[in-house]
Amino acid sequence: MPDRQYSRRQYVKAAGAAGLAGATGLSGCTAFGGGGSGSDTITIGAAVPESGPLSTVGKEMLTGYELGVEMINANDGIDGREVELIVQDDESDPRKLREALQNITSNNDVQAIWGSFSSPLVMAGSAIAEQQGLPFLAVATCYQEPLVNGDKEWTYTPFPKTRDVATATKEILEIVPEAERPARVGIWEPNSGWGSEMAEAWDQTLSDAGYEVAMRAKFNSGNKDFSTLISKAQSAEVDALVSNPQPPDGITAMKQLRSSGYMPKFIEFVRASDPQAWWSALGEAGNHVLMSPGWAPGLNANGSDALMSAYAEQAGDDQSERPRVAVGVGYNLAQTTRQALSSAESTEPDAIRSALNGETFSTVIGEFEFDEYGMPAEGQLTAASAQWQDGEQALVYPQTDGASELQYPLQ
């Protein structure tokens, strides 16, 4: 078993002293002479929601995983060794996820684990990896608190965090000409750990930027009646509404907003509006709502063009040639893993962890290093944000050459 006596903070310090910060995986070269399983295959385990309430976005993220593995293997794998991805359905349920990962790791020689979608599922996977001493990489979780306070040694999340999403919201609002900009913010706060963390970050960031937080109210997951929240927002004259509901809750809320006769000028439903299920359920009723998924078509650096081409080739004539946002997010995880494996001295868990701690990563979501909590270092990642525009998820932040114009006010 790997040495578990280091805290992550101590481990990062030790890794730096050993000169790991100068390592790079971008060359595609690896030194795999120092150990490993001896197999011709590098095996990664994953549990993903292929059924249940998160299945639509889970399947999109899995497509990104699969395209990423194909990319690795089409480029000679990792020093000639193919990557194999073993996936089971977690049914959108943390208990099922734990069972799936236990099954995968018990029956296979697994070198790393990839995470699921949403903080509860990601943290359930993290617990298994921490228990087994295996590198765990996950996207689709912005939640900072369990990473900062959890004393995790094996968990890495190459994905924007709560702080980055709040900053992105402020900067998207600043795209609107000052004379037309909304002034009164409403925060609908899911009754959960990340719900509270995200609401507090929005409250602080937007208040500091000069917006008035006119209402902040909680709701429970699975809520079927948003009429009270809608009435409170209307009474408070909220013209910018932000929240981070689960996808089914966000869809319900948007339907009820549309039928209420009241509509803010700006709505951002982080997480809820990420999947294709949003547009399938709402159509035009979901138009111009914003999301902050970390990647969207329109970003054009660090392999985005290759991703777009690979997705279009796979899709053929059956679906849109533009991948949904979760596809790019999943592809980013494969890129991160490839770069870590390519600079690791072996496929032993400690060697992969050393590479994760010392590498500078370049993926479709940006360039970053991991801090002592396994998060991208603060200030390095922009939380790329998109808006539903006539059935497409159009990048509106950052304003790259491939970005679309922000549609405002919401109609």
TrEMBL record:
Ranges for domain Leucine-binding protein: 41-381
Pfam family, one: Peripla_BP_6
CDD domains in the cross-refs: PBP1_ABC_ligand_binding-like
Keyword Nucleus part of the UniProt annotation: no
Keywords for this protein: Amino-acid transport, Signal, Transport
Keyword Transcription regulation included in the entry's annotation: no
Domain of life: Archaea
Alphabetized PROSITE patterns for the sequence: PROKAR_LIPOPROTEIN, TAT
GO biological process: amino acid transport
PANTHER family: LEUCINE-SPECIFIC-BINDING PROTEIN, PERIPLASMIC BINDING PROTEIN OF ABC TRANSPORTER FOR NATURAL AMINO ACIDS
UniProt name for this protein: Amino acid ABC transporter substrate-binding protein
